[in-house]
């Protein structure tokens, strides 16, 4: 038995994201590293960090537990920073298409750092406060993102990287009960809001957000308090630790993009199906961010290709890179994320395909190991979102 | 009771008369994680040692199962097609993949026995 991936001699060495993995010699550890090892986490290099891909229960059990109760995720490898200055929201709007100046205090939004060609440098979460904007960006991109932002901020603004903070996500239907047992104000928070909360004597910055499709929270905590906070939350029977493997299957079922796979420098937000994240006033050529003209054209004319969901017939799995074929066997696109959805109870995938074939219900084929396998274009998410609106 | 043989690619082989049963080891299923799909070779196919024979997909990755020796496929285990989790729960028993009529049983002598395989995987850690 041997992996069919070029990199995978043994699945043990197969990190979920080999492109962004680095050699063991220069991998960092998050403040929760010792806890992951104590919990039996299988540690793999990912985006420059040694991270747990799974714990002894395995990816399927972890995934289903998160949807049934609550999962705890270490997302400390992601980048946290704040933009300060007289109008930090307007400063960020010079780099992203999202409506940041329209956010109320403590409200957050999903947006993208764009290129002059309308491509995506990274996707990120931005939260507006009176004195600054708080950012969370992807681990693999954070050094480039922060250099880019710092270099392009208008005069009088500065980027402060918060590398002394960990980030812990608690996701699932029991997340509210779990967190509000320690911080009662968490229960009243609405989706995409953020506030400072005291949890067991530590001031944390808590948002009601996440990337699993479930209700839940992300907790920015001082690095030296992260281990104690994680252990406190895990002491609740409803909470189990969740690794990168289930994090990926949860976000795929939720229809959410993974940077470097479903979106990248050569995809624009419109063809990626992220047009919802761009307010009307910013869909114009002179909106004042990189690529605004390209993105305005994509809105006006419609993109040539679109990100879609795919449901393969049967049980065979369509992995990233799988060619999508039309009825004549011609290639009409490629899978960008694909796997098995434990809650969907079957294979699911995301792909970019020709826009004229992108309607839900369209029959296509997938070229898997040389055989054409039938599949259907499907609406996303594959599993309904359960955010607390 | 025949001797079980093992390959470096983590297949096991039991020979009973001239028919060999092939599966993947407990070590392999543990590394793969939850198995969600198995594709078996067609009965009647002639395989040479090293040929792609079956495919096993876990939630993490797809892997090939190779024919460990030369022969003709005489049976596939439909039970693992219907319930791929059998590969995880009973890899050395009910989770077998396929059976071959062996052309040259002498090829088995080049494979590892149980002790040699145990030493081999210990060296992989």
TrEMBL record, chain A:
The keyword Magnesium does not apply. Residues 1-26 are annotated as: Disordered. It is an enzyme of class 2 (transferase). It catalyses: N(6)-[(R)-S(8)-aminomethyldihydrolipoyl]-L-lysyl-[protein] + (6S)-5,6,7,8-tetrahydrofolate = N(6)-[(R)-dihydrolipoyl]-L-lysyl-[protein] + (6R)-5,10-methylene-5,6,7,8-tetrahydrofolate + NH4(+). Its EC number is 2.1.2.10. Residues 32-280 form the GCVT N-terminal domain. Residues 305-383 form the Aminomethyltransferase C-terminal domain. Signal peptide: none annotated. The keyword Transferase applies. Keywords: Aminotransferase, Transferase. NCBIfam families: gcvT, PRK00389.1, PRK13579.1. Belongs to the GcvT family. This is aminomethyltransferase. It comes from Tistrella bauzanensis.
Automatic annotation (TrEMBL), chain B:
PROSITE patterns: BIOTINYL_LIPOYL (PS50968), LIPOYL (PS00189). Residues 19-101 form the Lipoyl-binding domain. Its cofactor is (R)-lipoate. The modification N6-lipoyllysine is found at residue 60. Keywords: Lipoyl. CDD domains: GCS_H. It holds the Pfam family GCV_H. Binds 1 lipoyl cofactor covalently. The keyword Membrane does not apply. InterPro entries: 2-oxoA_DH_lipoyl-BS (IPR003016), Biotin_lipoyl (IPR000089), GCV_H (IPR002930), GCV_H/Fam206 (IPR033753), GCV_H_sub (IPR017453), Single_hybrid_motif (IPR011053). It comes from the Bacteria. HAMAP family: GcvH. The glycine cleavage system catalyzes the degradation of glycine. The H protein shuttles the methylamine group of glycine from the P protein to the T protein. The glycine cleavage system is composed of four proteins: P, T, L and H. This is Glycine cleavage system H protein. It comes from Tistrella bauzanensis.
